[in-house]
C-alpha cells in the first residue's frame, strides 16, 4: 500500500511503499532523535494524504509525524522523559477501555476515538512526575494519570458539541459528534467521566485506601461545579460582555483549565506520599502553570496557523471572547506567562534536582509554540 | 451553649445546656441501645434548632438523633418509612450542593433545579434500606444514597436533551435545558456526575476506606459504558429496528435502568457490612426488581395519564420504540413484572422480617400505578 506523508513542520512530502505507515514514522523519529537541536512529537496532526486527496477518510488510523524545531534548549532529558512517558501512557490508555460486550461496539469506538486521538498527554505526565518527585512509583500514579486524561477528553468532547463551542475539528480530526452523532458524543463523555472514577478506585495499588479516596474527592471537585464545569459556565456567561476584567478572566481559567492541571499535580503528590505542606506547595505551583498554559493557549490562538494548531484558528477572536492578548496585549501576555512560570519555579526550588521534570514540563507548557 | 433537639421519630423536643450536642447524642444512643426492641440510628436529619429558629445555619456540624421503633406492623409502615426517608433524603439532597461562590449561581441553580424537582427517591431508599438490613446505619449509607440520586438526575438531564429523547417535560416541570439552555444542562449533568463521586469519597463515615472504594468502583461501572450509558447506546441503536427481540430488550433495560437500581442495593449491602454471598444475593434481587421497574414503566407509558406521570405520554409508541407491552402484550407484561417480583422476594426470603422494607419497596415499585 502506498502512503504519502506530509510533515507539518517543514511541509515536505514523503511517500513510501509500506504495509503500515508506522515503520516510516519510526524511521523519521529516529532521524529526528539523532538531531539534538530538534524536538519531536508524534501526533495525529499530519494525516496520510492519499493520491486521490481523500484526506479525512484515510486519516483515521494513521498517526503521523509532526516535527517542530525546539528553540527551547530544554534538553534531551525532557524529550526522552516525555517520549518514554507518552508511549507508556498511550499504552495504558489503550488498555483502559476494553470491549466488554460486542453490543457495546459503538460507544467503545466513540470513547476510544477521542481518548486515543493523540494529544501531548501533559496531564498524565504531570501526575506521574509529581508522584515520582515524592518517591512514589509510576505504577501507583498510573490509574489516576489515565483517569485525568479520560476526564480531559470528556471535557473536550462535551466542549466541542454544537450547544457548546460547536467545533468540527479537534487535534486535526473531526470532533466526536461529527463522527458519531451528538447523542453518542454526549454519552461517550458521560461514560469516560464515570470510567475515570471507577478506574482509580479499582486499579490503584501501593497506597492506603484513604489516600485513594482523597484523590477521588479532589478529582471530583476539580471536574465539577467547583472546577472545570464552574469555569466553563462563568466563561459562557462572560462571552460578549464588554466588562470582563482580567480578574474575571483569571478566575475563569483557574477553574476551566487550571483546576484539572492543579489536580494532576495534587493527586500525584498525594499518591507519592507527600506531606500536606508539600501538597499545598505543588498545588500552588500548578495553579500558576495552569494559568500560564491558558495564557499561552490564548496567544497561540492569535499567532498560530491552522497547520500548526490543527484546529480552527482565531475562533476566540471571532466569538468576541475575552482573552489575555485582548485584555493586556500580546507582549504583556507573554510576560505574564513568563512571570507565572518564574513564580512556579520558585515554589518548587526547595526540591532541587528531584523536581527537574516538573520544572521542565512547566517550561515546555508555556514555551511550546511562541 | 443551649441546644434544642427534636427526635425525628417521636417528635419530642429535648433541650440541654451543653458545649456540644454530641454528649446528648451519646446519652440518647445508650438509652436506646439498652432497649433491644428498638433500633437506633444516628443521622443528620434532626438538626439542633436554635431558640431563634435559625435552623439551617446551625445544622451543619451536629448530627443528631433519629430513633425508630423496629417492629411496626405492615403497609402503614412502608408509608411511614418512605415518608420519613423521603423527608430525610430531600434534606440531604438540599445540603449536598452548596453555593460555593456567587459566580457559580447559574450552575448551582441548574443542578438544584433538577436534583430537587421531586421524584420518589426510590434509589436512595433502596440503598438505605439494604444498608440497614445488614445492620448498617442510615448515616453510613447517606452519601451514597445522595450520590445515586445525583447520578439518576444527571442521566435524566442528559436523556432529555434535544440530541437524545428531546423531552420538554420531566416530573411535570420543564426539563433542565428548556429552562437553562442546552449548554448549561449538559454541564449541570457533568457536574452532578462528578459531584456524586466526590460526595461519596468525602462524606462517607463509619466504614473502612476499602469499602468506600468498592462502592465507588461499582457505581462507576453502573453508570459508564458497562451500565447506564451502554444500555442507552444499545437502546438508541435499536430504535426503529423491527427485529428487536425480548432478549435484546431485557439486555437494554438491565443496563439502562437496572444497572443503577442494582447498584443502589449492592452499595447499600457493601456499606452495611454484608458478606460477599449476601451482596450477590441482593444484587440478583435488585436485577429482577430493576427489570420489573422498567416493565412497569413501559406499561405506565401505555396506560397512565399526563397528570399521573408528569411527562409526555405515549412517547415510546410514537417513536416506534420496542417496549414490553409491544413485544409481549399488556397483560403478559404485567404477569412478567409480577413473576420478576416473586423471584426477587424468594431471593431475600432468608432475611425474614429484616428485609421487610426492601420487600415492601419491591412491591411498591412494580405495583405503584397499575
UniProtKB/TrEMBL annotation, chains A, B:
GO MF, one annotated term: metal ion binding
GO biological process, one term: isoprenoid biosynthetic process
Listed PROSITE patterns: POLYPRENYL_SYNTHASE_1, POLYPRENYL_SYNTHASE_2
Cofactor: Mg(2+)
InterPro entries, per the entry: Isoprenoid_synthase_dom_sf, Polyprenyl_synt, Polyprenyl_synt_CS, Prenyl_diphosphate_synthase
Enzyme Commission number, as recorded: 2.5.1.29
Annotated Gene Ontology cellular component terms: cytoplasm
Keywords, sorted A to Z: Isoprene biosynthesis, Magnesium, Metal-binding, Transferase
Top class in the EC scheme: transferase
A Pfam family recorded for this sequence: polyprenyl_synt
Family: Belongs to the FPP/GGPP synthase family.
Protein name: Geranylgeranyl pyrophosphate synthetase
Amino acid at each position: 500500500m502506498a502512503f504519502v506523508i506530509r510533515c507539518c513542520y517543514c511541509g515536505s512530502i514523503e511517500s513510501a511503499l509500506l504495509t503500515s505507515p508506522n515503520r516510516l514514522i519510526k524511521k523519521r523519529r529516529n532521524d529526528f532523535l539523532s538531531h539534538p537541536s530538534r524536538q519531536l512529537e508524534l501526533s495525529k496532526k499530519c494525516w496520510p494524504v492519499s493520491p486521490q486527496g481523500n484526506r479525512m477518510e484515510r486519516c483515521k488510523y494513521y498517526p503521523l509525524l509532526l516535527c517542530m524545531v525546539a528553540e527551547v534548549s530544554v534538553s534531551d532529558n525532557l524529550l526522552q522523559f516525555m517520549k518514554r512517558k507518552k508511549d507508556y501512557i498511550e499504552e495504558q490508555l489503550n488498555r483502559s477501555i476494553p470491549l466488554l460486550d460486542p453490543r457495546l461496539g459503538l460507544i467503545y469506538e466513540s470513547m476510544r476515538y477521542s481518548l486515543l486521538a493523540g494529544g501531548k498527554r501533559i496531564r498524565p505526565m504531570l501526575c506521574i512526575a509529581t508522584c515520582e518527585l515524592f518517591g512514589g512509583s509510576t505504577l501507583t500514579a498510573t490509574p489516576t494519570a489515565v483517569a485525568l486524561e479520560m476526564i480531559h477528553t470528556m471535557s473536550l468532547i462535551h466542549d466541542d458539541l454544537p450547544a457548546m463551542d460547536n467545533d468540527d475539528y479537534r487535534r486535526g480530526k473531526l470532533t466526536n459528534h461529527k463522527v458519531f452523532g451528538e447523542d453518542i458524543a454526549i454519552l461517550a463523555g458521560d461514560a469516560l467521566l464515570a470510567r475515570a472514577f471507577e478506574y482509580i478506585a479499582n486499579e490503584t495499588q501501593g497506597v492506603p485506601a484513604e489516600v485513594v479516596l482523597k484523590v477521588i474527592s479532589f478529582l471530583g471537585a476539580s471536574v465539577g461545579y467547583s472546577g472545570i464545569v464552574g469555569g466553563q459556565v462563568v466563561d459562557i456567561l462572560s462571552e460578549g460582555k464588554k466588562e470582563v476584567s482580567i480578574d474575571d478572566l483569571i478566575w475563569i481559567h483557574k477553574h476551566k483549565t487550571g483546576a484539572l492541571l492543579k489536580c494532576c499535580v495534587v493527586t500525584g503528590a498525594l499518591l507519592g506520599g507527600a506531606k500536606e505542606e508539600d501538597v499545598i506547595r505543588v498545588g500552588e505551583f500548578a495553579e500558576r502553570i495552569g494559568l500560564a498554559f491558558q495564557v499561552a493557549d490564548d496567544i497561540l490562538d492569535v499567532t498560530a496557523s491552522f497547520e500548526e494548531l490543527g484546529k480552527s484558528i482565531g475562533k476566540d477572536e471571532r466569538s468576541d471572547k475575552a482573552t489575555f492578548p485582548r485584555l493586556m496585549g500580546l507582549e504583556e501576555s507573554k510576560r505574564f506567562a513568563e512571570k507565572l512560570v518564574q513564580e512556579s519555579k520558585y515554589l518548587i526550588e526547595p526540591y532541587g534536582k528531584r523536581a527537574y521534570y516538573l520544572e521542565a514540563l512547566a517550561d515546555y507548557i508555556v514555551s511550546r509554540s511562541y
